[in-house]
Amino acid sequence: QGLLATRQAVARYLATQGLAIAPTELLLTASTSEAYGLLLKLLCNPGDKIAALAPSYPLMDVLAALEGVQVLRYRLEYRKRWALDLDSVREVLEQGARAVVVVQPNNPTGSCLNADELATLASLCAEHGAALVSDEVFRPFGRTAALPSLANTQALTFVLDGLSKGLALPQLKLGWIAVTGPQALVSQALPRLEWIADAYLSVSTPVQLAAPALLRHAESVQAALRERVWANREHLAAALQSCPAVEQLAAEGGWYAVLRVPQSHTEEELVLALAEHAHVLVQPGFFYDFARDGYLVVSLIPTPAVFDAALPRLVAEFGRLFG
Question: Strand ranges (DSSP E) for the chain?
Answer without folding.
Answer: 26-29, 49-54, 70-78, 82-84, 97-103, 131-135, 157-162, 175-180, 247-248, 256-260, 283-284, 295-299
